[in-house]
Amino acid sequence: MEPLDLTPLLEPIRDRIEASLRPRLFLGFRDDDDGAxxxxxxxxxxxAAAAGTPWPTGANGPFTFxxxxxFEELSRLGAPELGLPDAGILALFYDLSLGPTSGDPTxxxxxxxxxxxxxxxxxxxxxxxxxxxxxxxxxxxxxMPHFFLDxxxxxxxxxxxxxxxxxxxxxxxxxxxxxxxxxxxxxxxRGNAHWIQQDPRVAELTPREAWSLxxxxxxxxxxxxxxxxxxxxxxxxxxxxEDLAAREFSRTHLTWQTP
Length: 259
Description:
Blueprint: H1 14-19, E1 25-31, E2 42-43, E3 48-50, E4 57-58, E5 61-62, E6 64-70, H2 71-77, E7 89-94, E8 108-113, E9 117-119, E10 132-138, E11 163-164, E12 170-171, H3 173-181, E13 188-189, E14 211-218, E15 234-240, H4 241-245, E16 253-257
């Protein structure tokens, strides 16, 4: 990861800040009309799955395919310390009619194809989103924890000393860290999540330390969910490291947060 450009106020605690960083892979997408491609990390379009797999369906009808991670592709592009599988495709489906949920196993479904995937044929009433292909990646952007919403607040010198400048803005270690932190958002694999609401590990997952972010997805206007598309919302897929290593995706936690 590239070294952090810290302010003079934060420089004395550089070692503590850098110890809290986690490697991540930033994902950039572009519009794509190549509907025949099976492999590749993408948003929307048609998913890749094991041949003969039925399209995920819930109480409100067919789920919507949101996107997929191609682990073979990502393992070549990302840092080894991301801990990703070296092969297989993980497809995420969600019931968009529900809007944002947290920890509801009936709201989403994951399909993992370990080898020889094929494009899944959608049922006639399935909603197909515009396809967006992976355009760029960056594994050198440090991923900082959101100490304002994460479950472990820092004990850094000066963290609780908050002042105010002549324009009424907060000053101090916490304020300058926030300015540094809020440049780290959008679509990513692994790393520290950029929470909008409280970290769900506070109340929903135990033990907290066992769970980490696998995939963070920024809201796509094509979802047309039950709130304004102008809202800055994100979806977070959490998994235990041991399950990720074993390619066991039946024990995940999905949270969709809005402001």
